[in-house]
């Protein structure tokens, strides 16, 4: 099939690779503009743009796709059979959605109608779900409400963080899309049951702050869900300390108040949490520094038994 592809981050790349490997023709790629990234705020291209350049594929980077008439003209010239959308990052107008004969398909990282929105993977982990999934659905003008073509259930592994789960799901979604395209003319669209809808809104920066009054299991879900963005963090002596990884622990620990460090060893930093539970911090990122093991951080003397995190 002739395809116009919309996508931006690395999670879109398995689908692009899958489409090419299956013999589909990528006529045009639409991706986000270059954006400042990293500590130096260097202008950085999205992963999909790099892919397009490496494979000699034509691409556009509209600042606002809904206001850029040149994009619509370019898509018309490309004459696609279908549009494929994976984590593009902008709302696509109806004039583009319904243009190709097979319209536009989106890969969404949840079992719709659950977790409609920008952060389905993060909210599934945060809510303690044991399973999530991938949905192939037809885009409409309403967010994540279009009819479904295919779904696949994906288990959430016990210590999996959002980045790991999303990466795994990107490959599962790519394979599911390729199988869907093979039989697209025979598939009957299934309308979503909107009464069962739940939502996964974009995460805000301050949501990552840890409340040590919460049980360790809840804190563990936050650390895994907020990995990458916005990052789970606490404060130590007025400085932000990002918690990269850890796990909730079971067993006898000294009596302490929530947020108090109760033990230090080579495994990491043990912190008292709500309901007399304990969380083991294994890896941290101090403000302005690189990631390191919690044990290495503790050797610097900034944290000791009795220190209060908050």
Task: Provide a compact summary of the structure.
By secondary structure, this protein is an alpha/beta fold. It has helices at residues 13-21, 47-55, 69-78, 94-97, 120-126, 162-182, 216-225, 294-298, and strands spanning 2-7, 25-30, 35-37, 42-44, 59-60, 82-86, 104-108, 131-138, 148-155, 232-236, 239-249, 261-265, 268-273, 277-286, 292-293. A hairpin with a 3-residue loop joins strand 13 and strand 14.
What does this structure look like?
The protein is built from 8 helices and 15 strands. The chain has 310 residues and is α/β, with parallel strands linked by helices. The chain folds into 2 domains: 2-196, 3-Layer(aba) Sandwich (Rossmann fold); 205-298, Formyl transferase, C-terminal domain (Methionyl-tRNA Fmet Formyltransferase, Chain A, domain 2), CATH 3.10.25.10. Strands 5-2-1-6-7-8-9 form a 7-stranded mixed beta sheet, with helices on both faces. Strands 10, 11, 12, 13, 14 and 15 form a 6-stranded antiparallel beta sheet that branches. A two-stranded antiparallel sheet has the order 3-4. The protein is elongated, with a radius of gyration of 22 Å.
């Amino acid at each position: 099939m002739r395809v116009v592809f919309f996508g931006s981050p690395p999670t879109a790349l398995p689908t692009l690779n899958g489409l090419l490997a299956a013999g589909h023709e990528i006529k045009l790629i639409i991706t986000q503009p270059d954006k400042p990234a990293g500590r130096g705020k260097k202008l950085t291209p999205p992963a999909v743009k790099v892919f397009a350049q490496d494979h000699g594929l034509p691409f556009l980077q509209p600042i606002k796709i809904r206001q850029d008439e040149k994009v619509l003209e370019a898509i018309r010239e490309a004459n696609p059979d279908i549009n494929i959308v994976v984590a593009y990052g902008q709302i696509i107008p109806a004039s583009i959605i319904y243009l190709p004969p097979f319209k536009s398909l989106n890969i969404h990282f949840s079992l719709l109608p659950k977790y409609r929105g920008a952060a389905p993977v993060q909210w599934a982990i945060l809510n303690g779900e044991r399973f999530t999934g991938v949905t192939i659905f037809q885009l409409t003008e309403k967010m994540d409400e279009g009819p479904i073509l295919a779904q696949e259930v994906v288990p959430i592994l016990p210590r999996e963080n959002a980045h790991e789960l999303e990466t795994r799901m990107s490959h599962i979604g790519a394979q599911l899309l390729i199988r869907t395209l093979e039989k697209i003319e025979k598939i009957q669209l299934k309308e979503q049951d909107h009464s069962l809808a739940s939502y996964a809104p974009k995460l805000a920066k301050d949501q990552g702050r840890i409340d040590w009054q919460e049980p360790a299991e809840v804190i563990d879900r936050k650390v895994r869900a907020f990995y990458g963005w916005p990052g789970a963090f606490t404060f130590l002596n007025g400085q932000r300390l990002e918690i990269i990884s850890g796990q909730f622990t079971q067993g006898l620990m000294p009596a302490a108040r929530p947020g108090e460090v109760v033990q230090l060893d080579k495994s990491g930093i043990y912190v008292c949490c709500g309901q007399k539970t304990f969380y083991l911090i294994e890896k941290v990122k101090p403000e302005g520094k690189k990631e390191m093991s919690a044990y290495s951080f503790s050797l610097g003397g900034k944290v000791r038994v009795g220190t209060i995190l908050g």
